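Work Package 3 (structural annotation) set out to generate three-dimensional models for the target panel prioritized at the project kickoff. During this period the team completed the workflow that converts sequence records into discrete structure tokens, so that structures can be stored uniformly alongside our sequence database. As a representative example, we reproduce one entry of 142 residues exactly as it appears in the project archive.
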Amino acid sequence: MNYEAMLAGTHFQVALAGPGAVLAGGFTSVSGLGMEADYEVYSEGGSSYPRYFFKNIKPRRLVLEQGIVTSVDGMSALMMMVNLGMSIPMTGAVILQDSFGAPVREWTVTGAHLIRYEGPQLNSNQVELAVNRIEFMYNGCV
């Protein structure tokens, strides 16, 4: 199967919501989708088989790049809350869409907190996208 031809022209639709704020938009690049957990190894005397005990989940960074946020008021509200020292957890989905807009794959994100927003470089001679980079800290996706 020719995956390059199938993925040509794809993009990501992102929709995250939390109390008082909504972030929705389209992005050309999304990274950090995944999960990582720590385990503690415990070996009992006389047993050659170690046991693994769940310890905790390591935070990940969800990075959204080169896109347009369609919920401008929601993004402004989210940034204003962060500037006031409030961090609200966002929950939602990242959807990979083909060039016709049909969903190809979907990831569910929970407990995401805004940690970075980078707007476009302003240059009157070039057309730029509305968002250069948005980063969230979260505990993993499904």
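Residues 3-138 form one domain.
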